[in-house]
Amino acid sequence: MGRNIAEDKKQKLWMVSELFYPDETSTAYILSKIANKLTNKFDVNVICGPTIYDKDKKNINTFIELSKDIKIIRKESITNKNNLLLRLITTFFLSFRLFKSVYKKVKSDDTIFIVTNPPLLMLLVSRLKKKRKFRLVILVHDVFPENTIPAKIFSSTQNIFYRKFKNIFDRAYAQADTLIVLGEDMKEIISQKIKKYSSETEVVIIQNWAETDLIYPIEKNVTSEIEILFAGNLGRVQGLKEFLELITPIKNSAIKYTFAGSGSIKSELIEYVKKKNITNIYFQPPFPREEQINILNNCDICLITLLDEMYGLGVPSKTYNILAAGKPILFIGNKKSEIAQMIQENHVGFVFSFEETDLLTNFLTQLSATNLPQIREMGKQARKLAENYFSEEFILNKFLAVI
Question: CB within 10 Å: which end of the chain, N or C, has fewer?
């Protein structure tokens, strides 16, 4: 008897995202890689926004060869400006356009895969799930509205509007069949959010991956200075202003701090350094992805900071490429968080809370070139960790198994 053609047909998966290939943002890059992997199992269709998210940036992703099996439906948006209000309007407008396509295209026996940003799109898709009964998988990069507290959008969890938003978002997260989170701390927070509304939603940990083929250690020229690098978003939730205030009194000419990137408080940080006349802190512009390997390898230690209130609300994806470059991490934040635990368990860096002022001051005061052998050894361990547990193939196979 002949084989039933329908039996060979792959189930249809819809990936819905504001950001996707060939945009160079980290979300676009991550989702494009996942989409490629999922073609092994699904008929992958993508509903996404414009080719390039920020029209002022000319860089597009040259690191991915997108599978020809992926079908893409693009929805153009209104002009995206650097003005916050216009960005909000843009996101609002595009979310509805993306959802309109979801409403028209997705059937009850399909699978939808979305990320938590933009939040309005997640709310709309979760609401449709109640009626359409498709399978919904959400990759949790942001925990709403809890992340609005450290961002100073809401001042308190007792705020009446915050509490209403929390109720709305808790229900939305609970509509998912599977929630993919980035670490144990995020799993704790998310499980608490949804337990009132769902006992069936699966919460699975899949960390971000390291690009071990593209990012690798390059021997650094020996100098008398130890360079500590922060590379990424210079925003409020990182606690960078608080970090600068902690290190201001420290006098150690052996340390050079470099902050590479852009963000909402960059100008504030630059002004603070000028006002305090700090001579060993430098700022660099954001860099394209192809420069990442050089930027990371030009330092001795990479800095990651997160406010205590960010516990369980996010895991910096840059962590894993830092490991790939063979650099130890100086982490300042909640010592129970995913990154802090990973560093301590694997001996790939140094961990302090923002409250441990004396310990951090003592560490940075005594840090010198004599510590370089220890730093290099930690870097070797970091590279091994990236290769063994956070390689792209290892992590993407987890996505393939879960979705």
Answer: N
